[in-house]
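Subject line: Sequence and fold of a protein, written as structure tokens
Area: Proteins and the way their chains fold up in space.
Start of record: The labelled sequence and token lines come straight after this line.
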Amino acid sequence: MQSHLLPHSAALSLGGSLGRMVFSLNKDKSSKAIIRCSKFLGCSIEVAREVVAKSYINLGRSVVEFLNLAKISKKIDEIVSVHNIENLNDALACGRGVILLTAHLGNWELAAAYLGIKDYPMRAIGAEQRDARITKLISDIRASCGVETIGKGFDLRGAIRCLQEGNILGVLLDQDAKDKGIIAPFLGQPASTPYGPVKLAMKMRSPIVPLFIVRRKDNIHHDLYFLPSLEE
């Protein structure tokens, strides 16, 4: 996808259209997502379909933004508005590293890239893709913005070293841990949740700072929020 040749707004529009296309063509996964969405949100199938479709559209736009990070980085302050970053700065001042906790919400890659571009010592847990070339592409794009990828499977040695060096360890915690997690309520339903990052934080005495990033209604700009550190 030569999206970097297009104006940013046009590239995002293309990404959104591709996301909608995937939603329409991938009927099996889309239908399952709609049913789950309706169950968890307690809404009608029609409302759930709209929510899931918009999620696909957002993912399409997010992919385009990720591929265009080299271009976006030059005007990152125009695209991302940051709120309460002092919560992260205070946590880093402790000198024991920080676990930055977020989820697959908004454009999480853009949140990490923002910190890397601003010279924060950013590391991120990364999943291995089925195609090793895709894994390398993702790692290379992250690295171009100052974000180092740490292997998934919760690379314990890499994660410990990251925190010992006083760096930021980015973790996405909303994936199904199956029999390796603990059961915690999510939207009123039991969900298997990874507990490795919490155990690591307790062992290393590292603060946990939650963050989330939200795309604005204009589909171009984002708000990045840093919450206060979680209490042990």
About this structure: The first helix runs from residue 8 to 25. The chain has ten helices and nine strands. The CA atoms of residues 18 and 232 lie 43 Å apart.
